[in-house]
Amino acid sequence: MSTNRREFIRNVAVGSAGVAIGGMASGFSAKSYSRIIGANDRLNVALMGCGRRVSAYYNALKNKDNNIDVAYICDVMLKQREKVAADLNGKVSGKAILVNDIHEVWNDQHVDAIFVAAPDHWHAPATWMAMNAGKHVYIEKPCSHNPREGELLVAFQKKYGKVVQMGNQQRSAKESQDIISEIHKGAIGDVYKALAFYTNNRPVVPVAKTAPVPEGLDWELWQGPAPHEEYKDNTWDYNWHWYGWTWGTAETGNNATHELDVARWALQVKYPEQVDVEAAKRYFKNDGWVMYDTMDARFRFPGNKIIQWEGNSRTGYNTFGSDRGTIIYGSEGTVFLNRDGYKLYDRAGKMIKDSKSAGKEAGNTLGGGGDMTDGHIANFFNVIRGKESKLNSPIEEGAISQMLVHYSNIAYRINKPFKVNTENGHILDDEAMKLWDREYQKGWEPKL
């Protein structure tokens, strides 16, 4: 983008769309903050992506204990960034500037941290570009669009030393932390299997057709690092999830990320030895959904451990009595764990402990949000400030869990199982490795 265009966007943002949504913004640079931590550790944060997920951040942004200013509200759709500004007006601190182009945020040295809640194809590029600009990043799941991007994120984080938290917020749930700790101490004996699941009743999706770009949408910037193409109706607002691999990672990337992460956490495993997948589009055969809507996946790990994934996007039947969760099997008992808490059973199937979550986190409601997200964000802020020493989901951990998603999608796309190098996670199949990376729009290629 030219300097003149950037200056024009900034003038428009400040002159007609800059919205005071709290107190005065701080005048300190990011470097200044590092010198005064403990005295005045207010952080300037920016929001990238103002769709369904952004409202899940509101409680944390309003919480005075988090001590932040909202400096930017960024979205490529005018009405979305204006809605967020209206939602937060008078409720948070900071003088937010509304911008269309995330480059404006990267170029502002006053911004300390960015929340990335754009579509999947933006997550990793936005994060490494933010790190390159000196920002810490809270990156929503999926943290990457493909396996190579996961590797790059870890490499960029090591290069720049920034705090990067992945948004798999169940890692910050007290009940989940407690029972996983007990499992690791032997509460159910030798753990050998985790069954992760998700159920939703998603409706018919329209067949996408070429159409005019909606008013207020910057379609070129929405596509960003992905190869650019003509606009099709009903694409930009959520249904990009189901309209192909250019932008999305299917339901496995959309939701399995959470449960597969919990399963891997419980079993203390890294990369699998083998991946087997059966998946297909089972519902509304002639609608616009072009990926699978039903998947069974099995990951075999060293030590004879197994993670199984059962994903049902378009049927409301809750096979396991809940819309999502993880069942962990051990030689001396079983644990049922979801966002509502956990149930611990002995080997005979008798429930010996029922711990319900004190808070509430949405299950399969679009956008989600709740106490887990609030705690996850607080952990992110506290690590930036040095008040906590450890992220609950650092990118190097999140990227490994995300690999299970990518393995699932790749196995589906090539329609066969494959083996994996358990040391580096690379797939031991030439056809599968052709999907390890993706094509980028010219000029957006990653540069490490």
Word description of this protein:
This protein has 448 residues and is an alpha/beta fold. It has 2 domains: 3-169, 3-Layer(aba) Sandwich (Rossmann fold), CATH 3.40.50.720; 171-208 and 218-361 and 395-433, Dihydrodipicolinate Reductase, domain 2 (2-Layer Sandwich), CATH 3.30.360.10. Helix content is 32%, strand content 20%. It contains 13 helices and 16 strands. The strands form 2 sheets. Strands 15-14-13-12-8-11-10-9-16 form a 9-stranded mixed β-sheet, with helices on one face. A 7-stranded mixed β-sheet has the order 1-4-3-2-5-6-7, sandwiched between helices. A hairpin with a 2-residue loop joins β13 and β14 (341-346). It is globular and about 60 Å long.
In CATH, the architecture of the largest domain is 2-Layer Sandwich
- The helix/strand series, from N terminus to C terminus, equals HEHEHEHEHEHEHEHEHHEEEEEEEHHEH
Query: What is the approximate shape?
Result: globular
The residue fraction in helices comes out at: 25-40%
Number of strands: 16
Summarize the structure.
It contains 13 helices and 16 strands.
Please describe the structure with a list of short key phrases separated by commas or semicolons:
single chain; alpha/beta; Rossmann fold; Dihydrodipicolinate Reductase, domain 2; nine-stranded mixed beta sheet; seven-stranded mixed beta sheet; 16 strands
Topology:
Elements: H1 3-17, E1 19-20, H2 30-36, E2 43-48, H3 58-62, E3 68-74, H4 78-88, E4 95-99, H5 103-106, E5 113-116, H6 120-132, E6 136-139, H7 147-160, E7 164-166, H8 174-184, E8 191-199, H9 219-223, H10 250-267, E9 274-280, E10 294-301, E11 305-312, E12 324-330, E13 333-338, E14 341-346, E15 351-356, H11 371-385, H12 395-414, E16 418-419, H13 430-433
Parallel strand pairs: 2-3, 2-5, 3-4, 5-6, 6-7, 8-11
Antiparallel strand pairs: 1-4, 8-12, 9-10, 9-16, 10-11, 12-13, 13-14, 14-15
